[in-house]
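Service request form, structural biology core

Requester: graduate student, group of Dr. S.
Request type: structure prediction, single chain
Budget code: on file
Notes: please return the result as structure tokens.

Sequence provided:
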Amino acid sequence: MSDGPREFPFTRYPARQGFAWLATAYRMFKVYRLAWVVLVLAYFVVLVLMQSVPFIGPYAAALLSPVFGVGLLAAAWTQERGGRPAFSQLFQGFRTNLWSLVAIGVFFVAAIALVAFASSLVDGGKLRELMANSKEMTEAQIAAALSDPQLQLGVAFSALLSLAVMIATWWTQALVVFQDAGPGAALKASLRAALANWKPLAFYGVGIFFYIGVVPGLITAIVAVVVPLPAAQLLVIALLLPYSLFFAATLYVSFYVSYRDVFHAGETLTPLSSGS
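Core staff response, request fulfilled:
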């Protein structure tokens, strides 16, 4: 693996392609619903267990999240070639360019930390203070703090910078694993491709917001009207829990689908051999 100058050709798409990524991902998910749900649940459990380790847990989870995320990319890669997603693939990142993936995790953690500090430029440190003291504050105190226009400006500024970090790292894991890119080259290629495809990524984001924000809200509102309390609360949980797992799995598949579409458009797939 080298981080020297390399070209990573990509394809530019119209806005509607963002919706197509989600639709394709859902079709892939439907083929192996149970396998994907188990894999995504295992991913979440591993991260939660890591975060529970005193002192170093949250940092280790953040740094190794890209490593475990590669397992979900590998599962989608396998399914696209005729295989089946498997639990063992969750650890694929430890066998493929591990240190480059850890370097991406370091970049992401450092960038988000800088975003938190940068908010002080516009809000005088109010957002950082709120984040540091939120556990000791009541809901009323938090709501009062968030009503401060200066703090709201800090939140908006941080959100904008965080979006830039996400765009820069969007396809870095896939580039490292599937194209043997070094961390610097992967970040550069991911950023260039994401900026060139900002329209489909924007539509993709709108689609995600619809399915994680609008749909659950509609389900909750309809159940509240039709079913009396407390049965309504139980029914909402019973409906939204599987829905959330299904959409989370679809979302992770869509990371691979969008990468494949942008960086390998039109390529012929080689089916896995029977022994793979």
